[in-house]
Amino acid sequence: MDRxxxxxASSALVALATTGCSSMPGMGNWIPLFDGGGxxxxxxxxxxxxxxxxxxxxxxxxxxxxxxxxxxxxxxxxAEFYANADTNSGIFIRCQDPSKIIATSSYEVxxxxxxxxxxxxxxxxxxxxxxxxxxxxxxxxxxxFDITADGPRLVxxxxxxxxxxxxxxxxxxxxxxxxxxxxxxxxxxxxxxVI
Length: 195
Hints:
mainly beta; Jelly Rolls; five-stranded antiparallel beta sheet; 1 helix; 13 strands; 10% helix; globular
């Protein structure tokens, strides 16, 4: 390879790396709802015992939520979470009433391995987007969610695998809420990117 070809290849790799990094969590226009510090971006509702321990947000009693003070319409969420096998939790998006978070007035991206109907268990959007066997399981380890709400398109990626990709127009804007409803739930990162 001559010097000119090597320079072109090198420039292309730098451009590719730069383009890829701008979309990585923690880079560009990502908004930290939680990144190891306090919970100032949220309003707590309910009885959950949310606390920050060694840079990790956790709760093991509920029911309760942390509801973002800001509302979002089109966005991407990057979250890292740990759940016990018996945990009932989730990330609610486009919530219609920030004082009453329920699955019938928002989209609930579920974290619940032991849900009676596993088609709406972990990594599903309750009542909107089912998961297929083998059903995703989150219990006993750290996991990732990449959740996209772009107009009517809703996509859930759990540990790198797409579990839901649907279109729905019922809810278009609202805050984001983290749920504690039984079992240990931990979040070490919750970032939002407006798109």
